[in-house]
Amino acid sequence: MDFTKLSCEEFTEILSTKAPVPGGGGASALVGALGCALGNMVGSLTVGKKKYADVEADILALKEKADVLQKELLTLVEEDAKAFEPLSRAYGLPKETEEEKAERARVMAIVLKDACAVPLQIMHKCCEAIELIEEFAQKGSVIALSDAGVGAAFCRSALYGASLNVFINTASMEDRTLAEQYNKEAQEMMDTYGKRADDVFTQVMDRLK
User: Fold this and answer.
1) 22-208 in CATH: which number?
2) DSSP labels, the chain
3) pLDDT in tens, 66-122
């Protein structure tokens, strides 16, 4: 099932059930796509306005990047589901005999790595979106300034949400070196881009008050 083809109502309804997917990772990717789209909206409301003619080329370049990024984040909604389903099955593998334990450990190592890869991608894309929104907020139309602030808040939430899907999976990894590598990568993105998103939101709030 392509969850991005569902209506908002259908997606939300499935999300509320005990179905393993979509979950927090897919929801984070969707929120990130919405945040990016809000930044893109600022650009759309800026292009063609005489007042912003001097930054129109910059805004058009930003919009081109945002168009791609929105689609990539939506794709990651589905990719997260594809990565989690094998993990969900792996947790149910038998572990009575030594042979079963060894096979389960082998499978878990593979699926946990895959289950971390997608939320890390979501985080990276959210970081890219925050960078775009920063510039949309600086150069875009003031009539859409609040949308840039909302976009930054959404992307920050998506960034933090996806991180939890990294941390919950690295906690189960036997390869602690790889787990700590993933944890470090996720934490660094949160530390850097969480602050940048907060700064955008604060700047927007200050300009609106």
Assistant:
1) 1.20.120.680
2) --GGGS-HHHHHHHHTSS-SSS-HHHHHHHHHHHHHHHHHHHHHTTTT-GGGGGGHHHHHHHHHHHHHHHHHHHHHHHHHHHHHHHHHHHTTS--SSHHHHHHHHHHHHHHHHHHHHHHHHHHHHHHHHHHHHHHHHHHS-GGGHHHHHHHHHHHHHHHHHHHHHHHHHHTT-S-HHHHHHHHHHHHHHHHHHHHHHHHHHHHHHHHH-
3) 999 999 999 999 999 998 888 888 888 888 899 888 999 899 999 999 999 999 999
Question: Residue ranges of the domains in the chain?
Answer: 22-208
Tell me how far apart the 2 most distant CA atoms of the chain are, in Å: 73
Q: In this structure, are residues 16 and 27 in contact, taking their beta carbons and an 8 Å threshold?
A: no
CB under 8 Å to 167, separation ≥6 — which residues? 183, 186
The CA radius of gyration of the chain, in Å to the nearest whole number, is 19
Phi, psi (rounded to 5 degrees) for 147: -65, -35
Euclidean distance between CA atoms 158 and 25, whole angstroms: 9
**Rounded to an integer, what distance in angstroms lies between the CA atom of residue 64 and that of residue 47?**
12
Distance CA 45, CA 55 (A): 13
Q: How far is CA 84 from the centre of its chain?
A: 15
